[in-house]
Amino acid sequence: MRMRDFINDLSLKEGDRYRGDCPQCRGKNTFTATNTLGDIQYNCFKLGCTIRGIYVTDMTAAEIYQRMKEQQTQRAYTNIKKEKETMEIPEYVVTPKASHTKHQRYVRRWGIAIGDTMYDVKDERVVFPIKHDGRIIDAVGRAVGKKQHPKWYRYTGEADYYTIGIGKTLVIVEDVVSAIVAAQEIPYVTSMAILGTSMNPKHFEKIGEYDKVIIALDPDAIGKTVEYRREIELWTGRKTTAMNLIDDIKYREYEDMEKLKELVNEISNSN
Ligand SMILES: [Zn+2]
């Protein structure tokens, strides 16, 4: 059976996720397919199975918009607080070893603690597990080989954000690596990477758990920074400070790090 027919038969609607037996290797419950705005991303977790890709359906922009509207309305009516499922870690995502040289090179380059990562030996990705309330519900994998697509891969797509660190001040950064760097370099902060292009009520719910918020996105994201700040203050009532950076936090520009430390200290002292 052709993959295209198999996917078509699933009739996945925008936002739908399917999990079942793999049409290729017959692996039990190892195949997933997710429809995100008409793009169906599919993947098999079984070691040795190469099934993976994106199938673009021919939904028009109007159809996508209509479906999103319908879903929003549905959500507004049901308003059920659903627990996220615990992620089943595939057997090829392992604790990193010194012999995983691509993994080693990547974590060394960014100065990331190895304990915050895993390694996908099948697809050559440095994997950042995403925990909510102590359970892994998703993971982000950064390609460290030469040929993989996409560069950043989401394992379940369940998580809305990645957070790391302890502290009642929250620093919102551009990506997972910046989040880890901020949490490592600045004592007593929690940092958050928003996994997507916009914030939703899940983000605001989480942000509301912190006393103060600092937004430290990359210097090209001024529009986004202004928008986030406005939304956060509106939704959570938390005092939110926006920072102008020279570069992403992960590049550890001296001035940026000093400014961030100062800001965090000011904020904690004023309490
Ligand atoms: Zn398979």
Walk me through what this model shows:
Helices cover 31% and strands 26% of the residues. It contains seven helices and 14 strands. A five-stranded antiparallel sheet has the order 5-6-7-8-9. A five-stranded mixed sheet has the order 10-12-11-13-14, with helices on both faces. The chain has helices at 3-10, 61-78, 101-110, 176-185, 201-207, 222-236, 254-269; strands at residues 17-20, 31-36, 39-44, 52-56, 93-94, 118-120, 125-132, 135-143, 152-154, 161-165, 169-173, 189-194, 212-216, 239-242. The protein is an alpha+beta fold and 271 residues long. The structure holds zinc ion (ZN). Zinc ion (ZN) binds next to loops. Zinc ion (ZN) binds at residues 22, 24-25, 27, 30-31, 44, 46, 49, 51.
Radius of gyration: 20 Å
Low-confidence runs (pLDDT<50, min 5 residues)?
none
Secondary-structure element string: HEEEEHEHEEEEEEHEHEHEH
Biggest sheet record: 5 strands, antiparallel
Give the total of beta strands. 14
SSE-based structural type: alpha+beta
Question: Rough shape?
Answer: globular
**Distance between the amino and carboxyl termini:** 64 Å
Bound small molecules, which ones? zinc ion
User: What value does the average pLDDT take?
Assistant: 88
Tally of individual helices = 7
Widest beta sheet: strand line-up: 5-6-7-8-9
Q: What is the strand content? A: 25-35%
Percent helix among the residues? 25-40%
